[in-house]
Amino acid sequence: MTQATPASTPKPRRPRPQVMRLTDAAAQRISELTQRADSEIVGLRVGVKNGGCAGQSYTVEYAHEIRPTDEVVEDKGVKILVDPKAVLFLLGTEMDYKADKMQAQFVFNNPNQISACGCGESVELRPAKIDG
């Protein structure tokens, strides 16, 4: 008589944290941009590039397609597609939209930001610390 061995059950995966969240103002602006674009837009692609006096800057562009490597964030009815190389730098970031008499822009409230340059065009970021 042979004993049946219990089937190994995989450990439950902890839920993945949402990379970014949007304020109501940011979600409204993204919705406006996607509705009035000249071609079909699936959302905004957000990333980080090297450059500027502080070392890095945020990028925001129209996304016409979802790439297989994109981290898709759906929040408040709109989509943000995060470049996979930027995920660790953007983890925990709140994206806002501010408009005043002089300018209108997306603003990133990022816990991984170490510093910013005086002109506000570039930032210094560190990768997020992930608890294992």
Automatic annotation (TrEMBL):
Residues 20-121 form the Core domain. PANTHER family: IRON-SULFUR CLUSTER ASSEMBLY 1 HOMOLOG, MITOCHONDRIAL (PTHR10072:SF41), IRON-SULFUR CLUSTER ASSEMBLY PROTEIN (PTHR10072). NCBIfam families: iron-sulfur cluster assembly accessory protein. Belongs to the HesB/IscA family. This is Iron-sulfur cluster assembly accessory protein.
